[in-house]
Amino acid sequence: MAFEKTAQKDWYKILGAEPSDSLTELKRKYQKLVLLYHPDKQSADVAAGAVQERVRRFIEIDQAWKILGNEETKKEYDLQQREDNLTKEWPLHAQVYLKDMSWDEDEQCYTLPCRCGGSYTISESETKEVALVCCDTCSLVIEILQ
Ligand SMILES: [Zn+2]
């Protein structure tokens, strides 16, 4: 059976919050949204489709709070997010030290493999002038640090 990673939702976004928000701040935002979307708080003249959407939002908000309102699950989630971001961003706009690139003696240039299978290439003289290098295959860019 293939292992499928379930797409993680952005629980902070769902609460309209930032990862830097304190627990008190998160709770305040959660409570505000819950009041807004609570099924018991809906007026009778809301269309059926809108009611469904609100219930869906309410469940989402509740899930978000279950994770972010608990110190342990929040810590776990934050850690997971950080790891996801690292893999997602590498090497898009990554900063790479020139010394971490491989020197190609034949071509007289520095190279770094891109995750797409292509590579970043910069010649010795170019390193004096440019700091951004495009992948030769895809549109990813890295910044070279000296
Ligand atoms: Zn690439």
TrEMBL record:
| CDD domains (UniProt xref) | DnaJ
Q: Which UniProt keywords apply?
A: Cytoplasm, Cytoskeleton, Electron transport, Iron, Metal-binding, Transport, Zinc
Q: Which residues cross the membrane?
A: none
Tell me the SUPFAM superfamilies matching this sequence.
Chaperone J-domain, CSL zinc finger
Q: Which InterPro entries match?
A: DnaJ_domain (IPR001623), DPH_MB_dom (IPR007872), DPH_MB_sf (IPR036671), J_dom_sf (IPR036869)
Keyword Cell membrane attributed: no
- What PANTHER family has UniProt attached to this entry? DNAJ HOMOLOG SUBFAMILY C MEMBER 24 (PTHR45255:SF1)
Q: Write out the similarity annotation.
A: Belongs to the DPH4 family.
Q: What is this protein called?
A: DnaJ homolog subfamily C member 24
Species of origin: Nothoprocta perdicaria (Chilean tinamou)
The organism's lineage is: Eukaryota, Metazoa, Chordata, Craniata, Vertebrata
